[in-house]
Design a protein that fits this description.
Blueprint lengths: L1 E6 L3 H4 L7 E10 L2 H12 L12 E3 L27 H6 L4 E4 L5 H10 L2 E4 L5 H5 L2 E8 L8 E15 L6 H6 L1
Parallel strand pairs: 1-2, 2-3, 3-4, 4-5
Antiparallel strand pairs: 2-7, 5-7, 6-7
Length: 178
């Protein structure tokens, strides 16, 4: 079923999302990969605040390519989500509600999704050029020294994703195999 949602993603929004739903996101999402997640975790360990408000946030696991002239970002395809699995439960417990990536997630992440009524979306790998057309604004929030792994804030319009793990822990990857 096609669903159109506005980010930030709240519990009310996740209550209406089921595995297999095609979802089109409009609003503000963030980009963070391994190195940015590591820095956020180090900040939390040091008792510091995160550089973004994590409550109801959507984090896209993506490494952008440089923007062409006149565009806010270059190719913007998803990266493998399992690399963020050691960081994701903590961020979910702090209020993050959605993640976008590709590939399977660990049991710990799935448990955190259920515990926090969150959702995991998949974006289509290999479609980075097409996905970038849905990104209308891009700005670096922090960790500029990480280059393509810096923490970014994006404004997206009708960004296409699929619900892979819903807030009840239903997992499209497992359902498809069965």
């Amino acid at each position: 079923m096609d669903k159109y949602i506005t980010a930030p993603v709240t519990e009310e929004i996740t209550s209406d999302l089921k595995i297999g739903d095609y979802v089109y996101i409009t609003g503000t999402i963030y980009v963070a990969r391994d190195a940015a997640h590591k820095r956020m975790t180090e900040a939390l360990d040091a008792g510091e605040e995160l550089p973004i408000s994590i409550k109801d946030a959507t984090i896209y696991y993506m490494g952008p390519s440089p923007a062409r002239e006149g565009r806010p970002i270059g190719s913007a395809g998803p990266t493998t989500a399992t690399r963020m699995d050691k960081y994701a439960p903590r961020l979910l417990d702090l209020g993050q509600k959605a993640m976008i990536g590709k590939g399977k997630r660990s049991k710990e992440v799935i448990d955190a999704i259920v515990r926090n009524k969150a959702v995991y979306f998949a974006a289509v790998g290999g479609a980075g050029a097409l996905l970038s057309k849905c990104i209308k604004k891009s700005e670096t929030v922090c960790y500029e020294d990480l280059g393509a792994e810096a923490l970014l804030k994006l404004y997206v319009e009708n960004f296409p994703v699929i619900v892979v793990i819903d807030r009840e822990g239903n997992n499209l990857y497992e359902t498809v195999v069965k």
